[in-house]
C-alpha cells in the first residue's frame, strides 16, 4: 500500500514522502498514530499544493532576508566604552551590547544569538559583525567602538 507520511518516521522516510508499506503496518501503525495517510488522488494533490505553498513561503522569506541585509549593511552602530591606559578597554563588547545598541540607535530587533562574533570585541575601532538572517543570507553590521 502506498502511504504519504505526515511526520518523519524513523527507518521509513521523511515528512511528505510517498512510501510503499504493507497493508497491516499502514492500518495498525501509521494511520492510528496519524503518521501517514493513504496515497490516493486527493491526498497526492493536497501534498503537491502544500509543497508549492511551502516553496512560495520559503522564497518570500529569502527575499525579505536579502532586503533586510541590504538595509543593515548601510547602517552602523556606535558604542562608547571606558578605556584605560594604553588604549585597553575595561571589559569587552559582546553580542548582547550590540543587540541593545541596535535597538536604541537603529530601532532594529536583532537576536544576539544570530550574531556570529567569534569572540567579544576588546579593541577600539571598527569591527564588522556577521549576522545570520537566513540559512543562505548573512549580513555584515558595522560596529564602531569609541572611547567614553
Automatic annotation (TrEMBL):
A Gene Ontology molecular-function term? structural constituent of ribosome
Superkingdom as given in the UniProt entry? Bacteria
Q: Which GO terms describe its cellular component?
A: ribonucleoprotein complex; ribosome
Keyword annotations for this protein, in alphabetical order, are: Ribonucleoprotein, Ribosomal protein, RNA-binding, rRNA-binding
Can you give the residue ranges of the Large ribosomal subunit protein bL9 C-terminal domain? 63-146
Coiled-coil positions are none
Ribosomal protein L9 domain boundaries:
1-47
Q: Give any Pfam family that matches.
A: Ribosomal_L9_N
The answer to whether the entry has keyword Aminoacyl-tRNA synthetase is: no
Q: Which family does it belong to?
A: Belongs to the bacterial ribosomal protein bL9 family.
Give the PANTHER family listed for this entry: 50S RIBOSOMAL PROTEIN L9
Q: Summarize the protein's role.
A: Binds to the 23S rRNA.
Official protein name in the record: Large ribosomal subunit protein bL9
Q: Gene symbol?
A: rplI
Amino acid at each position: 500500500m502506498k502511504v504519504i507520511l505526515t511526520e518523519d518516521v524513523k527507518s521509513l522516510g521523511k515528512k511528505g514522502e510517498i512510501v510503499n508499506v504493507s497493508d497491516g503496518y499502514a492500518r495498525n501503525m501509521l494511520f492510528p498514530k496519524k503518521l501517514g495517510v493513504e496515497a490516493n488522488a486527493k491526498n497526492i494533490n493536497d501534498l503537491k499544493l502544500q509543497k508549492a505553498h511551502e516553496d512560495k513561503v520559503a522564497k518570500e522569506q529569502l527575499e525579505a532576508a536579502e532586503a533586510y541585509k541590504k538595509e543593515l549593511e548601510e547602517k552602523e552602530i556606535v558604542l562608547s566604552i571606558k578605556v584605560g591606559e594604553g588604549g585597553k578597554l575595561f571589559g569587552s563588547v559582546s553580542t548582547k551590547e550590540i543587540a541593545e545598541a541596535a535597538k536604541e540607535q537603529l530601532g532594529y530587533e536583532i537576536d544576539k544569538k544570530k550574531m556570529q562574533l567569534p569572540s567579544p570585541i576588546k579593541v577600539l575601532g571598527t569591527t564588522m559583525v556577521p549576522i545570520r538572517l537566513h540559512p543562505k543570507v548573512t549580513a555584515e553590521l558595522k560596529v564602531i567602538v569609541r572611547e567614553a
